[in-house]
Design brief:
Elements lengths: L14 H13 L10 E4 L8 E9 L4 E11 L2 E6 L16 E4 L2 H17 L2 E8 L2 E8 L5 E6 L11 E6 L9
Antiparallel strand pairs: 1-2, 2-3, 3-4, 4-5, 6-7, 6-9, 7-8
Helix pairs in contact: 1-2
């Protein structure tokens, strides 16, 4: 199945929302994600809030690590961590929030830059093994901030992991040191 970037019923959107989506759609093919990872929550009213959402995935293990999104209302955008089911901003600490005002094209460009910066951040997968049990953690490599954990969570995540792997982004010298 073919997916479109930030797929929406364009005919149901107002001209400002269309301009925002056009800007996002023009930039999105250059991002380190797939079109299927993007979602639009259309406004209930023509001039209501438009939400553009993105799942940040581990492409190696096929997991959603984080959901982020931008909420556009009038001449303002607020972006940040989102609940993965409701696509509501929830103030999670995993990403720096964006809040700015401007024209629809400026809002779309600001959100596109914000999404791209998140997708370019290095994400590490780490694994600890002990007596046949395994604990896993995915975290931003530049800040160490945990995204998700799995496996045998009762294992303490201390000491050197038995496996570490970069699963997203690019590692820069000094990042996470």
């Amino acid at each position: 199945m073919d997916y479109e970037w930030f797929e929406a019923d364009d005919e149901a959107l107002d001209i400002d929302h269309l301009a925002i989506l056009r800007t996002l759609r023009a930039d999105a093919p250059n991002w380190a994600c797939r079109a299927v990872d993007t979602v639009v929550v259309e406004p209930e009213q023509k001039d209501g809030e438009l939400r553009a959402c993105l799942d940040v995935c581990d492409p190696i293990n096929g997991l959603i690590l984080l959901t982020v999104g931008a909420c556009f209302r009038g001449s303002h955008v607020t972006a940040g961590h989102m609940h993965s089911a409701t696509y509501e901003l929830d103030g999670g600490p995993q990403v720096e929030e964006l809040s700015t005002s401007g024209s629809p094209a400026e809002l779309g460009a600001a959100a596109a830059t914000w999404f791209r910066q998140i997708l370019e951040r290095p994400v590490l997968y780490r694994e600890w093994s002990h007596a046949g049990r395994v604990a896993q953690e995915w975290s931003f490599g530049d800040s160490g901030l945990g995204l998700i954990a799995g496996g045998e969570l009762s294992l303490p995540l201390v000491g050197e992991p038995t496996k570490t792997m970069l699963v997203r982004g690019r590692w820069r010298a000094g990042a996470g040191d």
